């Protein structure tokens, strides 16, 4: 009996130890927090000296110039970051645009929650499809059902919201019980971009906006460190952005309506929409190929801008594979495109080619058990972030993407 009791006791102990090992193994599931600070130019850490981000950068794995896709705009690049696709492939070609296929406008706050506009598989949809929970806080596209999924937790965008609400919610998500906890969380801040537009990238107001975000992140990281110690969580943190910012205050303004003032019959045949760096031209009913050739020639006859029919868009832009691009585009890298009735242009702007305007570059820095401290890559394209994040989370990418793991693999822990 004593031997039997001893065997039972040993067996119970082994089962308990196995259970503890299983729980420990489960608690070590990979977790990823992806943070976007909109408009964070690649040199802002040095220029504006945010305390926490400056300290974070010292030991982080980093891409010193993280190159956004063209056009270097907010909505296209936030979708690129989470799909690994260029805008010409995921279909979000501007912050607002016309879709000939849907015959509808994509408009922030109105139709950006319509999944029909989006191509590709966002990282949160990939995670949910493979039985992993995801949570998104103000990320472009996260309010839509895309590729058949939504995040388990998501927040509708609010332009003005106290940072404390965001910090508390992210901590609460990571503090959920294991079967409810998201392993992927995304977080977004728009304030640095807004200040950069209004006051310029070098302005003290832009510095102040960045320092406010920095203080919120300092609190968030301190609370996550405490939570990680209590719960034994492995949380990897990636900080990046969608684009940089250039001072365009002295750039000559180019009014696209001026070109068509002597050709009112042409203006009625085309829908022309865009931003400071690129405009999309769509043929309307009655427009012919000859009309398109004429309007492109008119814009090309003016210094400071170029116009291309979609099939002739230079390969360097990688921006002609989707109908929403338009039948033609107008582009510039040293002027500010505007139109009749537009509000006065801001001091800071983006959207331009990174090769011509390097201030469009941002950076990427990351810390956590998945990353090699102090690893440095001088330059890489942001399409490669998606496969890196999938690798960290153990997700399988089954759909075609433009990004590859290899360019960012040196950042991973050896």
Which range best describes the helical content: under 10%, 10-25%, 25-40%, 40-55%, 55-70% or over 70%? 25-40%
Count every beta strand, where a strand is a DSSP E run of 2 or more residues: 18
Assigned CATH superfamily of the largest domain: Alkaline Phosphatase, subunit A
Shape: globular
Can you characterise this structure?
With 414 residues, the protein is of the alpha/beta class. It has 2 domains: 29-247 and 354-411, Alkaline Phosphatase, subunit A, CATH 3.40.720.10; 253-345, Gyrase A, domain 2. Helix content is 34%, strand content 20%. The protein has 13 helices and 18 strands. The chain has helices at residues 2-27, 44-48, 51-59, 74-83, 87-90, 123-129, 163-174, 191-199, 204-231, 256-260, 264-267, 289-300, 385-393; strands at residues 30-37, 61-67, 97-99, 104-106, 134-137, 153-155, 184-189, 234-240, 246-247, 253-255, 270-274, 278-283, 306-309, 328-331, 336-338, 348-349, 362-367, 376-381. Strands 6-5-7-1-8-17-2-18 form an 8-stranded mixed beta sheet, sandwiched between helices. Strands 11-12-14-13 form a 4-stranded antiparallel beta sheet, covered by helices on one side. The longest helix has 28 residues, at 204-231. 46% of the residues are buried. The model is unreliable at 1-27 (pLDDT under 50). InterPro entries: Alkaline_phosphatase_core_sf, Phosphodiest/P_Trfase. This is Type I phosphodiesterase / nucleotide pyrophosphatase. Residues 1-18 form the signal peptide.
């Amino acid at each position: 009996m004593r031997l039997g009791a001893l065997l039972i006791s040993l067996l119970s102990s082994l089962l308990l130890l196995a259970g503890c090992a299983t729980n420990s193994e489960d608690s070590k599931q990979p977790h990823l927090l992806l943070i976007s600070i909109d408009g964070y130019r690649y040199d802002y850490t040095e220029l504006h000296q945010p305390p926490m981000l400056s300290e974070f950068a010292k030991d982080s794995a980093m891409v010193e110039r993280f190159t956004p896709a063209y056009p270097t705009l907010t909505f296209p690049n936030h979708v690129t970051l989470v799909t690994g696709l260029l805008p010409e492939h995921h279909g979000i070609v501007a912050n607002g645009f016309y879709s000939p296929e849907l015959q509808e406008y994509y408009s922030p706050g109105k139709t950006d929650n319509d999944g029909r506009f989006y191509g590709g598989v966002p990282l949160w949809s990939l995670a949910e499809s493979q039985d992993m929970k995801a949570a998104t806080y103000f990320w472009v596209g996260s309010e839509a059902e895309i590729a058949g999924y939504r995040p388990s937790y998501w927040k509708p965008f609010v332009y003005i919201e106290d940072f404390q609400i965001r910090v508390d919610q992210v901590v609460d998500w990571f503090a959920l019980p294991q079967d409810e906890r998201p392993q992927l969380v995304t977080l977004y801040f728009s304030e640095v971009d807004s200040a950069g537009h209004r006051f310029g990238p070098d302005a003290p107001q832009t510095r102040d906006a960045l320092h406010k975000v920095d203080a919120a992140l300092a609190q968030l990281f301190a609370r996550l460190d405490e939570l990680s110690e209590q719960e034994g969580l492995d949380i990897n943190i990636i900080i990046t952005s969608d684009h940089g910012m250039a001072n365009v205050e002295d750039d000559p303004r180019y009014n696209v309506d001026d070109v068509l003032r002597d050709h009112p019959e042409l203006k009625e045949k085309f829908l022309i929409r865009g931003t400071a760096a690129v405009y999309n031209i769509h043929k309307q009913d009655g427009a012919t190929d000859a009309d398109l050739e004429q309007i492109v020639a008119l814009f090309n006859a003016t210094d400071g801008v170029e116009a291309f029919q979609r099939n002739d868009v230079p390969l360097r832009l990688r921006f002609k594979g989707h109908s929403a691009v338009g039948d033609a585009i107008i582009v510039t890298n040293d002027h500010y495109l505007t139109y009749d009735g537009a509000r006065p242009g801001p001091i800071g702007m983006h959207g331009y080619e990174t090769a011509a305007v390097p201030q469009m570059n941002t950076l990427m820095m990351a810390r956590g058990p998945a990353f090699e401290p102090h690893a440095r890559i001088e330059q890489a394209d942001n399409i490669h972030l998606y496969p890196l994040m999938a690798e960290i989370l153990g997700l399988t990418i089954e759909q075609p993407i433009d990004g590859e793991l290899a360019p960012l693999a040196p950042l991973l822990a050896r």
